[in-house]
Amino acid sequence: MADASSIFAGIATSAQNGAPLYLQLKKAIADAVRRGLLVPGDALPSERDIATRAEVSRVTVRKAVQELVRDGMLVQRHGSGTFVAPRMDRVEQSLSRLTSFTEDMARRGMKVRSAWLERGIYPPSPEEMMVLGLSSKELVARISRLRIANGTPLAIERASLSASTLPDPDAVGSSLYATLEKTGNRPVRAVQRISAANLGDADSKLLEVAPGSASLNIERISYLLSGKVIEFTRSVYRGDAYDFVAELRLSSPDESGESIL
Ligand code: GLP
Asked: CB–CB of 46/65 below 8 Å?
């Protein structure tokens, strides 16, 4: 481990800017992990040690550590202390299964959390009207979330659905697809368009990477069995965290020329 005292020092004295002390300590630890000053497997000093070095109370240390454990950045092992969690490998995501973010991450044993960026009912944009087949008198439900796995923000997802499908966006808990499933509206087919892009200032801040970093922008239009479009989602995935994998088969002669669109 690098010089730990530099990580924790000065938290109390820099606290004049108003943010609660435990959040400042949490940020200092998270920054140290991101900058590689603390690496996966490193043990954190004891609660008492951190409290002394950061000049904060042990309650403050406990609160900061608990949040980082909840986020999956730290792990606590009974009797032996608190450690930096193992590094997340790049996520390999199949392009042939219609799964939700929650399911994808749960399959990998990762803890998922979302930060809400927007949710509500709005008049539809011309694009939403076209894709979702809405008239100008109908309304659209929008939900935008920052999707976080094991404490690392992985994607920003901005979904639009007809308000008749999702009349109460506040009812969406941790999973949109779980909510849709309850009303028999879980999509069974989707078309995805993936393009490379560079992150602008706002999105790079949310994804905690440098502005201009590579991203994969994914547009998913998903359908019910009836052929009705149910979801129009634009997602921005961190380019450094995702590999999308597609299985390709030699098509039989009667399938040649078939279009997925
Ligand atoms: C994926 C898709 C989105 C979809 C989401 C649902 O990430 N790219 O289009 O809306 O899954 O995930 P959840 O059910 O976890 O909200």
From this structure: no
